[in-house]
Amino acid sequence: MADSDEMTINLVVLGRTQTGKSAAGNSLLGSSDFESHHSPSSVTTCCSLGRSCRISGIIRRNGCELALRVRVLDTPSYPHSGLSKEQVRDTVKSALAHHFGEEGLHLALLVLRADLPLYPDESDHVIQFIQ
């Protein structure tokens, strides 16, 4: 639970294999919490949580300064090279409940590669999975 002088944003990172989900999570946190490298197959096989440091001086509420903390949940890709759709879904669902259960999820970031075309039905499959 966040302190009254602190705002926490809970964010989950989702997307296909090799889109840069873990790298995006690292960029958001300013860290290297998540393993990230080029590979022909999926790198991330389980969910992991990274937390930012307490960032001060960027948010004010009712005249009071609040600190911001960002919590990022990195997830396996969908589709995954080594896990079934159900395994990925159950892993993500369980991690969301475990890490964000009380406060809830605030943002979902869908990471797409800008150098590859998005096929018409591909976005539908990913969005259905997210829902």
From TrEMBL:
AIG1-type G domain: residues covered: 6-131
One Gene Ontology term of the molecular function aspect: GTP binding
Tagged with keyword Nucleotide-binding: yes
Domain of life: Eukaryota
Record has Ligase as a keyword: no
Family per similarity comment: Belongs to the TRAFAC class TrmE-Era-EngA-EngB-Septin-like GTPase superfamily. AIG1/Toc34/Toc159-like paraseptin GTPase family. IAN subfamily.
UniProt name for this protein: GTPase IMAP family member GIMD1
Native source organism of the sequence: Cathartes aura (Turkey vulture)
